[in-house]
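User: My instructor asked us to take a sequence, write out its structure as tokens, and then describe one feature of it. I'm not sure where to start. Here is the sequence I was given:
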Amino acid sequence: MELNFRTLVIFLLMAALALLPPVAMWVDEPFYIDLFSRVLIHAIAAVSLNLLLGYGGMVSFGHAAYLGIGGYVVGISTFHVFEDGVDWLASGWFQFPVAAVVAGLVSLVVGAICLRTKGVYFIMITLAFGQMLFFTAVGLDVYGGDDGLTLYATTDVGRLVDLGDEATLYYVSFGLLLLMLYVMHRLVNARFGRVILGARSNERRMAAIGFAAYPYKLTAFVLAGAACGLAGALMANHDEFVSPSMMHWVKSGDLIIMVVLGGMGTLFGPVLGAVAFLFLEEFLSGVTEHWQIIFGPLLILVVLFARGGIDSLLLAVGGPSLSLDGWLRRRRHDDGHGGAGPGPAGEDGAGRSDAGRNDAGKDGAP
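Assistant: Let's start with the prediction itself. The structure tokens for your sequence are:
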């Protein structure tokens, strides 16, 4: 385990997110529960996109389409509950799995075609599919068309989980985000993730050693689409409204900005990016309605001077990391020697052993 400034910031951020609802209610500011519910939902969508963009090097400009698909599954189901009296369609045990499955199936079809292209052609064809799905939603006049569809009730998950309650929806979103981060960590560190990373660097070399990249990339495409569909289902419950704007390429661009801003190819980068993007949007929009004029140059500065996003900036600010064992040894040494003199068992004042110094010398360190 490595202790550094970035790890500390991420730990404090996740702890703050866990404690936000009771604190917000205590200071009588429920608005922040609503704001950071949006942050968590967008973070889930950004984490899913990071699997493609950050780890796989696949720039998908139609990822928001799966967000809209998940939202419309909830919206259409709720519509038929009230219009046709089909009560079982209101169940969260139906809506959430169906949102993920439908979004995954659509991403399977889209990915099977898009992944046969590369570079700018891949970007353009994902954009084309995203806009096709957007205009399909616009044409659904029975479900509101371009005006969208209002949800008259939230998803029914059971008596103990009321998604109509802001704090409950917040913690459901927070729990799903933690689950997404855990699954992403396991995927990236498994052979599947190694193949995805290898294909991003050199697909021909991966094929030469026996790994055909296409099925792995298609699987990543489907997983990312299904996860984004879950985020869309949560967003529909949060807004109590769905519309084609959820599927527009501008929303896909927002998700890409979150990933780039936070740090592509990092586990917590999309979370940092979602927090920064939506918080800045909320703050700057209170200053001027043309908040993009201020946000744009800030993003350019991040791209120019922090190529790895906020994640790499935190690493640069924090300096080199220290292992947990080394930190504990240093604390024991400081407590026993007042922070000066050689450490016990052949350690120097930094808690580093003679063997560690010898190893450092072999690497050319002074």
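For the description part of your assignment, you could build on this observation: The chain has a mean pLDDT of 86. Try explaining in your own words what that tells you about the chain.
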